[in-house]
Amino acid sequence: MSDLMPDHELALSLMEKAAQVSQGGRNCSSCGMLLQKKINPIRSDAVSAMKKAARILRNETGSHRDEVAWVKRTETDNYERYNSYLYSESAEAVINIPSKAGLYG
Length: 105
Fold this sequence. Notes:
Blueprint: H1 4-21, H2 25-37, H3 43-56, H4 65-83
Helix pairs in contact: 1-2, 1-3, 1-4, 2-3, 3-4
C-alpha cells in the first residue's frame, strides 16, 4: 500500500496540472475528483483515471505527454509485479526438474 501512494499522488497532481492548462480541463479535473473521492483506492483506479485523462487530452498538443509517460511507466511496473509471481525462477522451479519417461506395462 505504501508504494501505491506516491503513484496516486503523482496521478492527482498531473491531472490537476492538465486541468489548469488544457481546454479539456473540466473533464480532467472530474477524473481527478473521482479518484480523490475513492476511500481505499487501488492501483487500477489511478491507472484508469489517468488513461481516461489521456484520452480526453489526446487531441491537444503537448499537454498530455506526462500523463502518457505515467501510464506507460505504470504499465511496465505492473507487468513486472504481475509476472514475477507467475513462474518461479528458483532452482526448485518446475521447469528445472529433470523429466523421466513413463513406464508402461
